[in-house]
Amino acid sequence: MSTQSTLVLIKPDGVNRGLIGNVISRLENSGLKISGIKILKINQELAEKHYAEHIDKPFFSSLLNFITSSPVVAIVLSGPEAISKTRSLMGTTNPLESAPGTVRGDLGLTVEKNIIHGSANQVDADREINLYFNEDEIISYKRSVDDWII
Ligand code: IDP
Ligand code: MG
Question: Is the CB of 63 under 6 A from ligand 1?
Fold first, then answer.
């Protein structure tokens, strides 16, 4: 078990549907800790960097339109195995196949508008956190409840 940090986005559909609180509750309830949080509108340049791995996919331009269409909430989430734990709380990419109890399984219906992003691995997490946050925007702190979680 290693302590990790991961980047989460509540995508434009989640923000516009009023699901920010719902999604954050799910993440917080797991015991993971919010160490950075902001609302921002992703511009074209940031979107291209964020989704660079998908540049050749047929859905790339639609994905960029979607992710830049309206604000997102960006979160740095930290804790034991935060990267894979967050991915399992999110559910699989296509909400129609995501398990009930996951963010996408409970709240989504289509593969593009799937509410949440979470970094896939350690390399992506480090890269993505750097895209959205300056060092002084990430706060390391202890909660008294941590002793009951970790
Ligand atoms: P992930 O978000 O579960 O890691 P990726 O395969 O990395 O999934 O895809 C990034 C994002 O691109 C997805 O979350 C979704 O919003 C969008 N996407 C993925 N596959 C498709 C598709 O087949 N059609 C439209 N959009 C897609
Ligand atoms: Mg991905």
Answer: yes
Q: In whole angstroms, what is the distance from residue 18 CA to residue 22 CA? A: 8
Burial of residue 127 (CB within 10 Å: 0-12, 13-18, 19+) is: middle
Q: Quote the pLDDT of residue 9.
A: 99
Q: Check residue 139 and give its pLDDT.
A: 98
Does the Cβ of 50 fall within 6 Å of ligand 1?
no
> Are the CB atoms for 89 and 27 separated by under 8 Å?
yes
- What is the per-residue pLDDT across 25-59, written as a single tens digit (0 to 9) for each? 999 999 999 999 999 999 999 999 999 999 999 99
DSSP 41-108: PPPHHHHHHHTGGGTTSTTHHHHHHHHTSS-EEEEEEEEETHHHHHHHHH--SSTTTSPTTSHHHHH-
pTM: 0.98
Backbone angles phi, psi at 65, to 5 degrees: -60, -45
Distance 51 CA to ligand 2 centre (A): 8
